[in-house]
Amino acid sequence: MKRIILLFIALCAVVALRAQGYQGYEQTPRMSAGYKTFPAKYYGLRAGVNFAHVSAKEEAYACDMRARLHLALAVGYGLTSSAPIYLETGFGYLAKGGKKNTDGGRLEYNLNYLEIPLVLKYIHSTDGGFGIQPFFGGYIACGIGGRIKDYSTETTYKAFSRDRGYFDDMPYEAYSEDDDYWHGYRRFDAGLRFGVGFSYAVAYIELSYDLGLANIAHDTFRPAHNRDFMLLFGVNF
After folding, report:
1. Given a cut of 60, is residue 167 above it in pLDDT?
2. CB atoms < 10 A from the CB of 17, how many?
3. pLDDT, tens digit, for every residue of 133-151?
4. What angle do CA 37, 38, 39 make, to 5 degrees?
5. Alpha-carbon distance 236 to 39, whole Å?
6. What is the mean pLDDT of the chain?
7. Is 183 helix (H, G, I), strand (E, B) or coil?
8. How far apart are CA 187 and CA 162, in angstroms?
């Protein structure tokens, strides 16, 4: 994982160095709105941290906030030639989950997702190269793996399962990491995303929040939802 992070940072640095020869997006196709111009399309690289947790009515599914990894690619398309309004999507790897203290130790919830966002973004730029980019939309995600680590018993469990697990007759302590049970989560997730980005030339910083709406618990009456604050750094080109 450390190698992936270092490779991603190096890629961002290469893109930033190649882009230093121009201000903003001078090398991209541009649309005109009176005296203002802005790019018809842009691409972005993102890396940062998620401050994630799971909100749930059932204690077995709930966990507290924990910092996790976030890597993503972004692409934005201009929707109109009269205003800098964009449809931004992309593809990302997000590590969500959280942690929880117990009487005998602690639990770590590692929920790893591949995610596709879709947001509307307004890009307001100044003559000095600074920009502010509020956005609102949603996301869909699929859980690709992860473990719940119980440090009190030194046992791990699969984070995602096809079955109800915890609410079956057998308690979750009886299952091992080779089973699909425990109180595993559903893989599918979806919800709302909103936030704001800040840019200077090609450099980019983003603060955002994912409000999970899909029930990721295997229980209709005891729903669980992902919650995630995100701080991302990257470049646009």
Report:
1. no
2. 11
3. 999 999 999 999 999 998 9
4. 135
5. 11
6. 83
7. coil
8. 9
CB 133 within 8 A of CB 196: yes
Cα–Cα distances (Å) from 115 to 16, 194, 217, in that order, read 25, 15, 18
Residue with tokens 């109109």: 80
| Confidence label for 10 from pLDDT (cuts 50, 70 and 90) | low
Nearest Cα residue to 45 out of 80, 20, 10, 74: 74
Give the Cα separation of 95 and 116 in Å (integer): 14
Is residue 178 pLDDT above 50, yes or no?
A: no
Cβ atoms of 94 and 66 within 8 Å: the answer is: no
Residue 223: which of 233, 213, 210 has the closest Cα? Answer: 213
Q: HSE, CB side, 13 Å, CA atoms: give it for residue 198.
A: 5
Report the number of secondary-structure helices (H) and strands (E) in the chain: 1, 13
